[in-house]
Amino acid sequence: MSLLIKNGTVVTPENTAIADVYVEGETITAIGENLPHKSESTIDAKGSYVIPGGIDVHTHLEAPVGGTTSSDDFETGTRAAAFGGTTCIVDFATQSKGQSLLAAYKAWRLKGTKATIDFGLHMIVVDVGNGRIEELDDLVREGVTSFKLFTAYPGVLMVDDGMLLQVMVRAKSLGALVAVHAENGGAIEYLVHKALTEGRTTPIEHALTRPAITEAEAVHRVIALSRIAEAPVYIVHVSSAEALEEISRARRKGFAVLGETCPQYLLLTKEELLRPGFEGAKFVLTPPLREHADQEALWKGLEDGTLQVVSTDHCPFFYATQKHAGLNDFTKIPNGGPGIEHRLQLLYHFGVRTGRLSVQRWVELVASNPAKIFGLYPRKGVLQVGSDADIVIWNPNQKYKISAVSHHMNVDYSMYEGMVVEGNAETVISRGEVIVNRNNWSAKPGRGRYLKRSPFAAASSTVR
Ligand code: URP
Ligand code: ZN
Ligand code: ZN
Asked: In angstroms, what is the span from residue 10 Cα to ligand 3's centroid?
């Protein structure tokens, strides 16, 4: 099957210019002006950007969190992702305490058999006792080349500094990357206990018991550990100016520290948790939403390269049922929010249209950098000859109203309900197959392939 995408404004690492893209089978085989190629199908992309499919490297599909399971599985979650222009995700397989890492990996591979777009897996490592550390080598052989560890959630996911260091050293020797959810779990536990003792139980307490300093302290410590290990580190979902400053200082000194933020931290504040009734629970996610000044700092961090990636941390729970578990106690609200579908739209509307980000930078943040950092480049994340034909035709002028009524995520609310954004994925192509065409969906569950990812070092030096 061949496909010619004509007359679009094609975004490549070198430039953004009008060109044609030719696809044979699953692969891009030519990019150039007025390609003479004959094709079985043709798309006229005049007036639209032609960009590499988005890559979301922080999703939790069908994930066990806080005694329940996130409501999107690999079928519904990847379909929603595709509607928003994301053609590849890297989801988190999660080890439970005492479980073999390989068993956890296999369980997530099974969940992934329903995927509609290609996917990779990180591993959330909670326990490397009893010789489990050696299983990290097996994971890397399976293409799991990044491990996420938590300095928060004592008793569940939190690891101590010694274990974090041990994993960093092992990961370095394997060419794998350690990603960290950085918050001071002990301090938060103390503040939560105090709040509950004082009878403070409503959703806003989630944010008040996790102040920015608990994030900044942990980021500082994690960076110190990465220096001891002489290993690179990637800080997930950076939410505050204080935490960002730690990353910025480390990078200025030349340390290998990378970081991501998410649309919710760029666009929403903790005021949302004060919504009437129990509505604030819709915005209980971790780290919590912060202040306007934090948003400003994070935008600057994206502009100046302190942060390299925008992911979603998509972790949806139904408001009417799952979030209500915490009606009388904010600690029982499952942590997480939906977002996999709207990442490109939100960043385009609030980043590119406002002039904060160039189109080129937008593509770096949502596609190229995630691919480079997580071992998928140049197979994914770039339009170039030989790359997978994961392509989005992006109409910069299409207005789109975000709403739970029309979104494709399996969840009963949107954090951006009623927001009108300009710019949308009109056609989405995954390995040469058109899977979204305007509002029409044509992909079968299970067509998404598991991606064995390369070691970290390969393309990371070109990340901007
Ligand atoms: O609240 C969140 N972010 N839930 C998902 C798990 C995590 O911490 O990334
Ligand atoms: Zn996290
Ligand atoms: Zn997460």
From this structure: 32
Look at the alpha carbons of 165, 251, 88, 35 in this order and tell me if their dihedral is positive or negative: negative
Q: Is 459 contained in some domain?
A: no
How many angstroms does the Cα of residue 393 sit away from the middle of ligand 1?
Answer: 31
Query: Are 176 and 218 found together in one domain?
Result: yes
**259-276 per-position pLDDT tens digit:** 999 999 999 999 999 999
Is this prediction's pTM over 0.85? yes
Give the Å distances, CA to CA, from 78 to 50, 81, 93, 368, 448. 21, 5, 15, 19, 9
Query: Of all atoms in ligand 1, which is nearest to the CA of residue 60?
Result: 5
- Tokens 């994206």 locate to 302
Q: Classify burial at 24, counting beta carbons within 10 Å of its beta carbon; exposed 0-12, middle 13-18, buried 19 or more.
A: middle
- For residues 339 and 387, membership in a common domain is answered with no
- Give the CA diameter of the chain: 73
Give CA angle at 163 (159, 167), nearest 5°. Answer: 115
Domain span holding position 139: 53-378
What's the pLDDT tens digit per position in 35-81?
988 899 999 999 999 999 999 999 999 999 999 999 999 999 999 99
Instruction: Provide the pLDDT for residue 459.
Output: 62
Domain assignment present for 146: yes
Find out whether the beta carbon of 63 lies less than 6 Å from any atom of ligand 1.
no
For ligand 1, atom 8: residue with the closest CA: 286
Residues 205 and 336 in one domain: yes
